């Protein structure tokens, strides 16, 4: 899916006013793996959340495959996120009270039959070589295993866009490479990927690097 941002700004209006991203215009092509780099607080996660339809824009427009995301109602946005977006995080965000298999199935629980959901989840766990731990609880897994489970969960509904916020931030070099290989494979399936990272090695493995400083694009 092609993602287009036109003059996008996000300002947080709290005790202090923070202009988290300022006037960003950007096109991300179908099947790109875009790496977003920048110092802490520069606006990387805000940009990711805007693309994922999780944050309202203060100004500007955002189109995903021509659909005007900034004009969607709350319920349309919910459908957009649920069907089009997969999200993975540095801290995995697995639920410790559920098994690996249940964690992967959870987001689709209301939308698929148990049998279909279970089959899809098992298929993904196999693809990601973690099916032997399907009955384990997440607290027993290594960081690399947890991230593979989180990737399976993010991919279960076959999203068109995978958003990755520091996906390798808690991993050692071997696990980092393993997760990046998985992400590359996912891109080859036709999915547009955006990775926020501090890690130059991770960024290099994308198809393009983009730098943000003080909420503005430094290059791209
Ligand atoms: N909900 C919020 N309310 C107020 N300010 C916020 C909010 N979310 C983010 N900010 C501020 O917006 C700016 C950009 O934050 P953001 O999380 O996008 O940066 P980042 O580049 O992802 O940082 P890091 O690399 O440390 O995660 C920061 O100054 C942050 O404090």
From TrEMBL:
SUPFAM superfamilies: P-loop containing nucleoside triphosphate hydrolases. Pfam families: ABC_tran (PF00005). Gene3D superfamilies: P-loop containing nucleotide triphosphate hydrolases. GO terms for molecular function: ATP binding; ATP hydrolysis activity; transmembrane transporter activity. GO terms for cellular component: membrane protein complex; plasma membrane. The keyword Signal does not apply. PANTHER family: IMPORT ATP-BINDING PROTEIN. This is Putative ABC transport system ATP-binding protein. It comes from Sediminibacillus halophilus.
């Amino acid at each position: 899916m092609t993602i287009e941002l036109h003059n996008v700004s996000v300002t947080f209006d709290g005790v202090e006013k923070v202009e988290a991203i300022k006037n960003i215009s950007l096109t991300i092509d179908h099947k790109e793996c875009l790496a977003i780099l920048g110092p802490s607080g520069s606006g990387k996660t805000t940009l990711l959340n805007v693309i994922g339809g999780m944050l309202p824009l203060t100004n500007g427009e955002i189109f995903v495959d021509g659909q005007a995301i900034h004009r969607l109602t709350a319920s349309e946005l919910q459908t957009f996120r649920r069907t089009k977006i997969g999200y993975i995080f540095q801290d995995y965000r697995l639920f410790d009270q559920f098994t690996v298999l249940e964690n992967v199935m959870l987001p689709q629980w209301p939308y698929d039959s148990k049998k279909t959901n279970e089959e899809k989840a098992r298929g993904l766990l196999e693809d990601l070589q973690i099916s032997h731990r399907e009955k384990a609880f997440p607290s027993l897994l290594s960081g690399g295993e947890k991230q593979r489970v989180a990737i399976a969960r993010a991919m279960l509904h076959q999203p068109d866009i995978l958003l990755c916020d520091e996906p390798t931030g808690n991993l050692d070099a071997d696990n980092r490479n393993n997760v990046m290989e998985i992400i590359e494979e996912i891109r080859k399936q036709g999915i547009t990927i955006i990775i926020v990272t501090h890690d130059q090695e991770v960024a290099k493995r994308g198809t393009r690097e983009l730098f943000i400083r003080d909420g503005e694009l430094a290059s791209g």
